[in-house]
Amino acid sequence: MKKIVKTLMLGLMLFSMLFAVAGCSGKSAQKVVIYTNADKEAVEAMQNSLNTAGYEGKYVLQTLGTSELGGKLMAEGDKIEANLVTMSSYFIDSAQKKHNMFTDLNFETKALAQYPAYYAPILANTGAIFVNTQVIKEKNLPMPKSVKDLTKDEYKGLVSIPNIMNSSTAWLLVQSIISEYGEVEGKIVLNKLIQNCGPHIETSGSGPIKKVRAGEVAAGFGLRHQAVADKAAGKLIDYIDPVEGNYSLTEAIAVVKKPDTATTQLAMEMAKVIITKARPELIKFYPVALYQSETIGESNKPGNPKVYAKPLTVELLEEHQNFFKAAQ
């Protein structure tokens, strides 16, 4: 009888221990799922910072296009698979407004500008005009000082710009045109610009600089830092800060609200690592100062920085996409 009781007691103890272990494992963090629309260089910088900080194997990172990820954010809210998102800040703002899906960051960022409590910037892109100096010389073209200059007859077939339906870089161009000329004159300017581009309207923000490097066109509009880097490397590229202004777009990081608090906390830790540890590498590829103590060279400071008068939202992007289509 004593042996039976002892066996039962041991069995109960073993069951209790297994239950306790199962309970603990249920509270442990799962792998953090990261969704990002970032370019290859930014993805590598984020991964390097996380792996160096000891988080290798604790996350899964998936890259999506801006439109695809933006659509998922707007449609799925906090039901999205991701725990951590890096994305164009206007999409994060719009998704938060619609779903209240992001939790406030629990660490101080020391950003130069003021941002909502639920995200922090990881990088910024600035727009500018750039030219192939050899093509400009060979075709005896005047050096452009404005986007409007690129609508002149002598530039017909010699300009490349990104398409706002595919690339957020094109939004920097549209913002500058509408801000400077208004929607009525701006539509005329954009129409002439599109005519001068002909087949050189690109689906990616890097498309125009590639066409200009190759000498297929004389001038283009795109990311300023790419042209700065090309010129510094001795390529036949120069850049111009247009009269209409240098507009910028920020990409930011945000933590999705989830019932799994352990994984959410792990995602928060990773967000802090990316903000504090990835920036030295990110700023080399995207040379815009976003945080205190960050410095950039004079060549990477836009000569005519401007901010669009209205808050950037998905709805405003759609308005400007319709403006672009109407100008075609």
Structure explained in plain terms:
There is one protein chain. With 328 residues, the protein is of the alpha/beta class. It is 46% helix and 16% strand. Strands 1, 2, 3, 4, 5, 6, 7, 8, 9 and 10 form a ten-stranded mixed beta sheet that branches. The N and C termini lie far apart (92 Å).
Kindly report how far apart the N and C termini lie.
92 Å
Give a short account of the largest sheet: 10 strands, mixed
Low-confidence stretches: 10-26
Element-by-element helix/strand order = HEHEHEHEEHEHEHEHEEHHH
Structural class: alpha/beta
Secondary structure blueprint with pairings:
Blueprint (H helix, E strand, L loop, with lengths): L1 H26 L4 E5 L3 H13 L6 E5 L2 H11 L7 E5 H11 L2 E2 L16 E13 H6 L20 E4 L6 H29 L3 E2 L4 H8 L4 E5 H9 L4 E4 L7 E9 L4 H17 L1 H7 L28 H14 L1
Parallel strand pairs: 1-2, 1-3, 6-7, 6-8
Antiparallel strand pairs: 3-10, 4-10, 5-8, 5-9, 5-10
Relevant terms:
328 residues; alpha/beta; 46% helix; globular
Outline:
This protein has 328 residues and is of the alpha/beta class. It has helices at 2-27, 40-52, 66-76, 89-99, 133-138, 169-197, 207-214, 224-232, 261-277, 279-285, 314-327, and strands at residues 32-36, 59-63, 84-88, 102-103, 120-132, 159-162, 201-202, 219-223, 237-240, 248-256. Strands 1, 2, 3, 4, 5, 6, 7, 8, 9 and 10 form a ten-stranded mixed beta sheet that branches.
